[in-house]
Amino acid sequence: MTQDSKRVAVAWDIEDRISYLPRNVVDHILESLPIQDAARTSILSKNWRYIWAMLPNLVLNKLFCNKLAARSQYVFKETIDKILLQHLGDVVTFDLDVSGVQLSLCPDIGRWILYATRNGVKKLTLNMSNNSTYKLPSYIFNCPTLTRLQLFNCVFKPPTTFLGFSNLVTLCLEEITFVPTTEFCVINAPLLVRLTLMYCNGTKYLNIGSSRLNTLVVIENHYNVELSFFMKCKNLTALYLLSNNPISVERSKLEKLLLSLPILKVLGAVPQGLPFTLNCLWHIKLGVNFGQMGQISYTLELIKSSPNLSKLEIWVDTTSDTIEAVSETQQTA
User: Which residues make Cβ contacts (< 8 Å) with residue 173, sequence separation at least 6?
Assistant: First the structure.
């Protein structure tokens, strides 16, 4: 064999090792790359020409969108249009983060989301800018394939024909404004397991029904969530209620909720003066401002009301009066 033939054979062997990797390995490699770099692999060989276009996970993250938008709005729109135009097959994950992009592209965003919902998207993430008044398009509410939905900085107003999310397992809503079509914004999600609400507006109109819910996270400046709606969630094992204001405002509702949860194991809340014992509770996670004597007292009462407690986590909110408050607490304990 000549020297040139050996070089060709070695080169062909290297190409075989790359081109004939298992498809799941190739997909994993490409999904680890920024999508524009994944698209460039189409020039490697005929075998690679359309592989990137068949990736089931389309992640258009903030860095990617910001780089395109920095060049021009036209480049940003055209690039994403081309990506979706060349895409082949179903979409499992569609992640679009335009939180750093001007909002003149709202019609295009709706069109891109429509593409995802028409192609069987299961995991959808949409992150708009902080001052967004973007109203979610109706086809998000009419997408039966969704199993995970994450929304940031949007207006949540379902159409009157909305029947719920039949296959949704995880729902995360941050800085969402709820606009009810009737008295309440009802979301039927029979398979929902985890619900997170962070700094949302209009949560007092929210009514989410799911018998399988096991984790509820509510982070707000004020407690507006109607806790009574969750009393039927008998499988709830983890409850996190975090607020800048004392929870004593909702004391009666919280007490009723806690009493209705027979298997609650993890609690992140500071209720005031519990008149009952939480026998199931074994894990408490709290953020406590030791500059406020009220929060310290509530925390101690909660610990005393949890005889089977085995794990305690406390995040300290430091203030100028923290040391003095802690010292007073030790003296009176």
Answer: 150, 151, 156, 196, 197, 198, 200
